[in-house]
Amino acid sequence: MTPNIDIRKTLLRMVNKGSASHLGSALSMVELLNAVFHSVDKNKIKRLADDRDRVILSKGHGTAGLYAVMYHHGLLDKKDIETYFQNGSIMAGHASHFINTVEHSTGALGHGLPVGLGIAIGSKSKRYKNRVYVIVGDGELHEGSNWEAFMYAGHKKVDNLCVLVDKNELSQMGETAKACTLDPLGKKLEAFHFEVYEIEDGHNETEIIEVIKKTRNSSKPVAIICNTIKGKGVSFMEGNNLWHYRPPKGEDYINAMAELNRE
Fold first, then answer.
1. Which CATH superfamily is domain 4-262 in?
2. Quick one: pLDDT at residue 3?
3. Per residue in 16-65, pLDDT tens?
4. Cα 226 from Cα 169, distance rounded (Å)
5. Rounded to an integer, what distance in angstroms lies between the CA atom of residue 90 and that of residue 99?
6. Residues with Cβ < 8 Å from 132, sequence gap 6 or more?
7. How confident is the model over 252-259, as a mean pLDDT?
8. Distance (Å, rounded) from C-alpha 243 to C-alpha 257?
9. What pTM value is reported for the model?
10. Domains in the chain: boundaries
11. Exposed, middle or buried: residue 173 (CB in 10 Å: 0-12, 13-18, 19+)?
């Protein structure tokens, strides 16, 4: 499998060069995204085949993580990611469908899941055998549009929809639970007629892949709740919400890269 240290180093270089934000949000879902892209037919994505698997990053502010993982899976070129968040580049700070292999522009939180649900329903109507993967953040689940989508997906038994929750327990200004608790999240999603799995270590890529494989023939939509750590992989960023907005510059960048190089 793709070494996740290499992905994190690519991600760190991108955000540093572009003086961009949301590094902590991107680091928390490296394993989650890597597991998804190990589980899809990447050749169909490259060809933009109608029946390709679709991957939608609803928490679009973490798009540097998406782009870094896609690059390591051969779905983006080095020349593209080197321009991330720079003037004149289509590699914007939020996911953009101006990039061929990116399914949907996101960043307005709560929009990715409703669109993913629509794509899943449309795919079923065409009898495609694909699957739609939507990655949401736990803070993002404060948006009501997600719950409308959960409700309808369960009601219609949209079994080609797989929602992965990056549950790092921090949103932009603090702890997610202090703003509005989501727990018991798993039981809530079960009540919405989802098949639910909760992964205690949301950075256990192998376990995420196993659940994705196991649920391919589910008769229900699937939700995989991944308990993650914001800023995962760089010790002084882990669980530190300053890195939601702060770009890694100067000594912070040097120290972070040195730590990753020691791994």
1. Thiamin diphosphate (ThDP)-binding fold, Pyr/PP domains (3.40.50.970)
2. 61
3. 999 999 999 999 999 999 999 999 999 999 999 999 999 999 999 999 99
4. 11
5. 7
6. 53, 54, 56, 116, 117, 119, 120, 123, 160, 161, 162
7. 96
8. 15
9. 0.96
10. 4-262
11. exposed
